[in-house]
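During the reporting period, our protein records have gained a structure token line. A sample record is set out beneath this paragraph:
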Amino acid sequence: MTDNRQKPASAAVVKAMAVTTAIGAELAITTVAGFYLGRLLDNYFGTSPFIMLAGVLLGLATGIWGIVAFIAPFLKE
């Protein structure tokens, strides 16, 4: 009989997947939050689409800053 059981993933692979997921979530959440907050303020002030664009750019910048802060300890290893 052959053994069809899969080998468990190594700790390094799981750590890499967790870091990749955290990076993607960080960038996505901040960008989407900037979009919706900007859109909300655009509807309130009647300045569509300028605040929304600024919100997306601010969300991207915040996400990149968060990613750099998150990755910094890994670069020291």
Residues 11-45 form the longest helix (35 residues).
